[in-house]
Amino acid sequence: MSSDFESYEQDFSVLTAEITGRIGKVPKLVGDDKKQMVANVEKQLEEARELLEQMELEVREIPPQSRGMYSSRMRSYKQEMGKLEADFKRSRIAYSDEVRNELLGDDGNSSENQRAHLLDNTERLERSSRRLEAGYQIAVETEQIGQEMLENLSHDREKIQRARERV
């Protein structure tokens, strides 16, 4: 069973490496070559999604005691997939802006600066959101620990009061 998972893992690794290389080429190409490359990357991303689904099915078949390691691998693969999709989206945005500029005869310098500024702001916002989520998680964990401590202290108090009553 895990050999199937490892086979899917190898296929996923090869596929993501190909996708990464092609995503890097998209902004450098022009015309029909660029359209063809975008279509190929979309197909490969779909194949990668299907591989992830197959890997998830394999993980479900693994006994619970050894499932943890595979589950953590799956989380990292999903993160990698999300990163690839975001990178592809950025390269497609650059591609669509270039097509628009060709049609309108615009040099695009100001829009490129605006896009770069927006991407920087988006990344900053995502980092801030992750920090807020982490802070919230810590607050929730701290609250749970505090609640457990109060319960323990309450039980200890009851024990001491019962001991006093016996004496």
TrEMBL record:
Compartment(s): Endomembrane system; Golgi apparatus membrane
Comp. bias regions, Basic and acidic residues: 114-124
GO CC terms in record: cytosol; endoplasmic reticulum membrane; ER to Golgi transport vesicle membrane; Golgi membrane; late endosome membrane; SNARE complex
Keywords for this protein: Coiled coil, Golgi apparatus, Membrane, Protein transport, Transmembrane, Transmembrane helix, Transport
Vesicle transport v-SNARE N-terminal domain mapped to chain residues: 1-91
Coiled-coil stretches noted in the UniProt entry, renumbered to this chain: 31-61
Spans annotated as Disordered: 103-124
Topology term for the membrane: Single-pass type IV membrane protein; Single-pass membrane protein
Listed GO MF terms: SNAP receptor activity; SNARE binding
Major localization listed first in the record, in broad terms: membrane
Keyword check for Transmembrane helix: yes
One GO term (biological process): vesicle fusion with Golgi apparatus
Database matches in InterPro entries: SNARE, v-SNARE_N_sf, Vesicle_trsprt_v-SNARE_N
Matches recorded under PANTHER family: VESICLE TRANSPORT THROUGH INTERACTION WITH T-SNARES HOMOLOG 1A, VESICLE TRANSPORT V-SNARE PROTEIN VTI1-RELATED
SUBUNIT field: Interacts with distinct SNARE complexes that contain either STX5 or STX6. Interacts with NAPA and, to a lesser extent, with NAPG. Identified in a complex containing STX6, STX12, VAMP4 and VTI1A.
Family the UniProt entry places it in: Belongs to the VTI1 family.
Name the record gives this protein: Vesicle transport through interaction with t-SNAREs homolog 1A
Organism: Corythaixoides concolor
